[in-house]
Structure formats: structure tokens, C-alpha cells
Amino acid sequence: KFILCDRNAMAHLDSEVKEECLREDLKFYFMNPCEKYRARHQIPWKLGLQILKIVMVTTQLVRFGLSNQMVVAFKEENTVAFKHLFLKGYSGTDEDDYSCSVYTQEDVYESIFFVLSQYRQLKNISLGTLGYGENEDNRIGLKVCKQHYKKGTMFPSNETLNIDSDIEKDCVHLDLSKSPQDWKNSSFFRLEFYRLLQVEISFHLKGIDLQTIHSRELPDCYVFQNTITLDNKAHSGKIKIYFDSEAKIEECKDLNISGSIQKNTQYVLVFDAFVIVICLASLILCTRSIVLALRLRKRFLDFFLEKYKRRVCDADQWEFINGWYILVIISDLMTVIGSILKMEIKAKNLTNYDLCSILLGTSTLFVWVGVIRYLGYFQAYNVLILTMQASLPKVLRFCACAGMIYLGYTFCGWIVLGPYHDKFEDLNTVAECLFSLVNGDDMFATFAQIQQKSILVWLFSRLYLYSFISLFIYMILSLFIALITDSYDTIKKYQQNGFPETDLQEFLKECSSKEKYQKESSAFLSCVCCLRRKGSEDHLIPVT
Known about the structure:
By secondary structure, this protein is of the alpha+beta class. 62% of the residues lie in helices and 14% in strands. The protein contains 16 helices and seven strands. Strands 1, 2, 3, 4, 5, 6 and 7 form a seven-stranded antiparallel β-sheet that branches. α1 packs antiparallel against α7 (261-308). It starts with a helix and ends in a 9-residue tail after the last helix.
């Protein structure tokens, strides 16, 4: 009997020890870095690492951004230069989505042969570092293609049309060995405009970007794939001329540059490698913290089910999943991949600036957003985070409903007003125009630019715009703000009167109610908890 009583007492004591150890570990897990340091004198490595990473990643992004700006500026400036070089009568400003237009047959022939003549004497007239490049057929020269209906006759005065709608495409390659006069005498350029659909002139040019030398970087070599298109598909008496230039960066075959550029490149590569090491360390620490948190979660779920014979609510289970750690892991992965791409670009092995800038830019965004986590430890700053968390589900549901109305107005505006208004020409432009109207931008210009060629459409446009602005600004936008304001007021009341207690919070609260008992038995319980914690990896708690 005494043995049975002793076993029951020991089992009861052992369960109390487990409960107290679990409570201490949970309390420690939900502490901020300063509280953890005061509790167990553990240095907040992740906090220091995140601060260092912010400085390193931001510095890396600024340097890469300046380099990327030079690349984009070089491409855009060359495109403008090409338009002035190869488009006859180019004014310096595109007319619409096309560069310029012609209205007579003579202007068409002059525009085509102007391109051929300028291409032939390019090295004598260009101010840039340009040379001739090989096209898809590995030939230097111009490729001219024309598309036209197969055959047909047309007499507009008699309202007679006989045409074969099959489309033929004829191409010819013009090299530098022939003179412009020989090209003009070719039968290929005798155009039948009533059958002509378009004329396409394509050629490749090569250039070297020397401005990077001033920034102590290795220069890039470019291949410009230029295409000039004379579009006559509308047969309206107006031929639109499009100019498209696609720039590709290639590795320069032979670079011999004296000076300190090579040494500067090595320093940048070492800096990028250090950024990768920092991000990998942050990635490992955050992954370890998530794994240990999941173990602690499993201990709490098992204990709660064993003691109270019921499951923990979902809200308490999600408390163990730290979204900030997940955000940091995503940011670290993007920074590591972006840094590797940046090192390859710096070494001139890769040329994908756009992908690298997206990865580094997004990762820097996530790094700075992650700083909010540490501000959330202060009550004055935590209001923003709690308000966003509370209002997000309601805002998403509200946006889903409002989005249906928005899409309806978008399709309606595109179909009805598209032929009469520049801002309603396509769905993307309509969506952007309506979004600007919701924010109160460009209202008068949107009303004024509608063409009054159709009274019915003009009246409909007024009804359409007035109803959209009234509905979205005065009703939907006000309700949207009211949802966020309501969540803010709720959070403020909770901060004053206390938040609703969950199972997890009530379990942790028992710790304060048993302080007197803990003081009496603290020596024994602490000894047992420490021994258990040293002997089991499940009791390890991540350091923040």
C-alpha cells in the first residue's frame, strides 16, 4: 500500500514537473529578444544577423541598381538614336504606339530607301560605337520582307473587288556590295498598294557600352535586333511605321582594359559572396527556429490532449507558426539566388539583369518589411500589425465583391468607349484609367477627351463615368476605409481592456497564479527541468 501511494505521488510529481517545464519553455518561446536575454542570458544572434543583413543587402541593391540604370539608359538612348538615324522625318516623339506615319506612295518609297541608304553609310554618320552584326542567316546586311494578298483586282469607283485572301510573303537579302541605285531598280520594290499588307526591314547592329568604365566596371557588348515595319493592314490611306529594337547583352570576346577595373570587380565579387554567407546563416537559424517551434507545438498539443481530453483550437496552433520567419526564409532564398546571378553578371557570364533586379529588389523589400516584427514588441507600433492582421480577412472578402463590379465596368468601358477614347482602347488601359479615377486622378481629362462623334455614345460616357465615380468613391471606398477603421478601434479596445484569452494564454497565465508555489519548490523543479532539458533535444528553444 505504501509502495502504491509512493508510485502515485511520484507519477503526480513527474506530471507536474513536465507541465512546469512545458510552461517555462512556452513562456520563453513567446518572449522578445530582450526578455530572452534577461531570462537565460542568451545572445540574440538572429536579431544582430538581421540588422547586419539589412545593411549588406541594401548596399548590394543600391550598387546593382546604379549599374542596372546605366544598362537601361544605354538601351533606351540607342533606340532613340536608331529612330533618328533610320526613320525619315522622325520628329523625336512617337505619334502613338507607332513612331510615325506616311500618306503617299512617294513617301513610302522614300522611307524604305532612306533606311537602306542610312544603313550603308552607318559608320560615317553614327555618333555611337556601332558596327554591323550578323542576322539569323549569319549574313551581314538588311533583310526586307513584304506581305501581300496573293492576287486580286479592285475598282473602288465601280464598287468592285476580286481578291484572294491568301497571304504571300516574299523576302530579299540586301548586302553592302550593291549600291542604293541597284536596290531601287529591283523589281522587288515595285509595290501594289491595294494588295500590300506590310513591309518589314530587319537588321542587326553591334555596340559596346563604354560608360561602365567610369564606374570601374567591365563594359558590356550589345547586339541590337532592329525591325522597321510599315503597316498597311487597314488600307485606310495611312501607313503606320513601327520601330522595334531588342537589345541583347553578350560577353565581349576580347577585353584588354588597363587600370584598376579588374581589382574593383574582385572586391565586388567578395562582397557578394559575403552577402550569400550572411543570408545562408540567417536561413539556417530561421529554419532551425521553425523546426524547434513545431516540436514545441507537438509537445503542447499532446499535453493538452492528455490532460484536458480535447484538442487545442486552430488559432492557438497557428501561434507556433511564425510568419516572420517564413518571410525571412523567402527573402534569404531570393537574396542568395539574386546574388549568384549578380556575381555571374559581374563576371560577364550571364546578362539577365531583369531577373536579377526582381530577385534582389523583392528580397530587400521583404527584409525591410521584416523590421516591423521587432517594432511590434512595442505597444505603440504593434497597433499597425494587429490592425492589418484583424482587417485582412474582411478586406479580402470585400475586395472580391467589389472586384466583380470593377470588372463589369472595365469590360463595359472597353466595348463601348474603346473606339472613341484613348484611355479605353484595351482592357489593361481601361483598368488603369478606372483605378486612377477611384483615387481622384485625371478626372477632367477623362471627361474631356471623349470624342463627340456619336451623341448616343457621348451621353452614355457621362452616365458611365458619373455612376462609376459616385459608386466607388462615395460608397465602396468609404466602406473599405470603414472596415479598417473598425478593426483599428477593436484593437485599441483590446489593448485597453485586454485581449480575449485562448487556451494557450490561459495555460501560460497559470504560471503567474502559481508564483507562490513555484518559490517554495523552485529549487527542485528547476533542477529537474534543467536535467530534462539537457538530456532531450525537444526542450531546445530557438534563440531570437
